[in-house]
Specification:
Mean pLDDT: 90
Radius of gyration: 21 Å
Order of helices and strands: HHHHHEEEEEEH
Strand content: 5-15%
Shape: elongated
Largest sheet: 6 strands, antiparallel
Number of strands: 6
Number of helices: 6
Low-confidence stretches: none
Helix content: 40-55%
């Protein structure tokens, strides 16, 4: 980081009323298609000068792009050679995302953790033909479909094996919603 930028960031709380991290949180709550829209928002809504607004937006967008690229890369790596499973993963994510704004989708090297205040589910491409969906459903009976946690151990209480997107049905979504509500 060059000296001028470092100085600008250090002076930001005094000159704008918020730290860079606080400004990032403000921008995260909004969705701006263009850089200029975000700059204009900071200038008109908060009275931030053009120089500071431009710097805040630039640094925020850089960080967001790195985070997004990292997330995409982790998921892509999980499904390399298992692309046929992506429709199942995508259907799960699309549906789970509708549960609430507090759903956190956290890709890791070998799985995707789904959290609220705590983890409630885990999506893992187990083989080339199957996704294992781990669920936290304490006290729930094990059935033919809602099996024991298997390789998930204590991370989850149950596991559902999915080979096709059509298996993401009402019964499965009810279990997911229950796990989400209990998290």
């Amino acid at each position: 980081m060059d000296k001028a930028l470092k100085t600008m960031i250090e002076n930001m709380p005094e000159k704008t009323g918020k730290s860079l991290e606080q400004w990032k949180k403000v921008l995260k709550k909004k969705a701006f298609a263009k850089h200029g829209e975000a700059v204009k928002f900071l200038k008109t809504e908060y009275g931030v000068t053009h120089g500071f607004a431009n710097t805040i937006v630039s640094l925020f967008r850089q960080e967001s792009e790195v985070a997004e690229k990292g997330t995409i890369d982790l998921v892509a790596a999980q499904y390399k050679g298992k692309e046929n499973l992506l429709p199942i993963y995508e259907k799960l994510i699309k549906t789970i995302s509708k549960f609430g704004k507090d759903v956190e989708i956290a890709p890791k090297k070998g799985s995707v953790s789904l959290r609220r205040s705590k983890q409630f589910a885990l999506i893992k491409p187990a083989t080339k033909t199957r996704i294992d969906l781990g669920l936290k459903l304490k006290g729930k009976e094990i059935t033919d479909r809602l099996g024991d946690s298997g390789p998930f151990g204590s991370m989850c209480t149950h596991r559902v094996k999915l080979a096709e997107a059509k298996e993401v049905d009402k019964e499965l979504m009810d279990w997911l919603k229950e796990a989400y509500k209990n998290a």
